[in-house]
Amino acid sequence: MEQLIDPFARAISYLRVSVTDRCDFRCVYCMSENMQFLPKKELLTLEELDRLCSTFIGLGVRKLRITGGEPLVRRGIMTFFEGMKRHLDSGALHELTLTTNGSQLAKYADALYAAGVRRINVSLDTLDEAKFAEITRWGRLPQVLAGVEAALAAGLKVKINTVALKDFNEDELLTLIEWCASRQMDLTFIEVMPMGDIGNENRLGQYWPLRDLRATLAEHYTLINIPLNTGGPARYVQLGETGQRVGFITPLTHNFCESCNRVRITCTGEIYTCLGQEGHSDLRGPLRASSDDTVLEDAIRAAIALKPKGHDFDYSRDRLDGQMTRHMSHTGG
Ligand code: SAM
Ligand code: SF4
């Protein structure tokens, strides 16, 4: 079958799928405290998720990342992972992975490994128990740390994702790096993005440019630039002293769109071909309308044909509210 190529000659080989909008945390930069979640019937069923992902894999997707909301709180989600293993076994899919808050890892790490998952991203912004409770509202640090240890023990390679927050985890930069280094975990810092209505948190006050973070890091470590191309927005350095890789995701200050190979599917089956733009197409309609996969394939090709060249986040307008009306938990981070 012909591979998916967008109008700017970018091959689409990376699919991120949000499998739920629900979460057991309420991180202040991601959700409001009293989030309204979607009715169940709006969500793609596990069977629909399987069919959709399998169709994308048939069209050339080689890497599949499962996200949310918190993917591991979706009931029956291990059935989905176990189903995707057949594509790893056949060689069609090269990597099956997920982004998780880590709260359920102690329970699922072994099963994820058995389903063919080898690397995971765990989001963790602080190693301080009180600060963790403050930033996640509902999360508890010991549970997540136990999850990380369980993942490592199961043989999963873990990368930690940390949202860089001014006046919050600035002082933990070195502690986090050392903690990760002692467990052979890479670490990626993410600049906070203007997504969704999150209540009265002042997002601009939270913004900590990674340029500044990097400069602080350079005072303590030798930074070696490495041309690691994951097809994503992260730029990486290696720390001369520990050999560890540290990534920076700076969607606001750098344009990374030229090499974008990815599309996202929301938990309701909308396809967003650019994280920073509102444009999207519906795939749930075609999925439910017919059991004929060519109907779905045509809808996917039509959506890819609309993938924009790039996005346009802008903090200079000095707005406190999100420029993007949808939440990260809806599109999948
Ligand atoms: N619940 C899972 C987790 O936290 O890893 C997966 C979904 S979460 C939406 C994915 C990632 O998005 C997390 O690393 C989270 O820190 C990040 N994120 C959420 N809201 C963000 C925002 N406004 N700006 C930057 N990153 C954000
Ligand atoms: Fe949940 Fe992840 Fe959003 Fe935190 S960042 S509220 S863990 S979806």
Low-confidence stretches: 314-323
Total strands: 12
Total discrete domains: 1
- How do the strands of the widest beta sheet line up side by side? 7-8-9-6-5-4-3-2-1-10-11-12
- CATH fold-level label: TIM Barrel
Q: Rough shape?
A: globular
Rg calculated over all Cα atoms: 19 Å
Main sheet, how many strands, which sense, barrel?
12 strands, mixed
CATH architect. name:
Alpha-Beta Barrel
Q: Tell me the quaternary state.
A: single chain
- Mean pLDDT, as a whole number? 88
Describe this structure in words.
This protein has 333 residues and is α/β, with parallel strands linked by helices. The protein has a single domain (14-331), classed as Aldolase class I (TIM Barrel, Alpha-Beta Barrel). The chain is built from eleven helices and twelve strands. The protein has helices spanning 46-58, 77-90, 105-114, 129-136, 141-154, 173-181, 203-206, 210-220, 284-289, 293-304, 328-331, and strands spanning 14-18, 63-67, 95-100, 119-123, 157-164, 186-191, 223-226, 234-239, 245-249, 262-265, 270-272, 280-282. The chain has a twelve-stranded mixed beta sheet. Strand 11 (270-272) and strand 12 form a beta hairpin. Helix 1 runs parallel beside helix 2 and helix 3 (105-114) runs parallel beside helix 5. The radius of gyration is 19 Å and the shape is globular. The model is unreliable at 314-323 (pLDDT under 50). It binds S-adenosylmethionine and iron/sulfur cluster. S-adenosylmethionine is lined by residues 23, 29-30, 67-68, 70, 99-101, 123, 161, 163, 190, 192-193, 195, 328-329, 333.
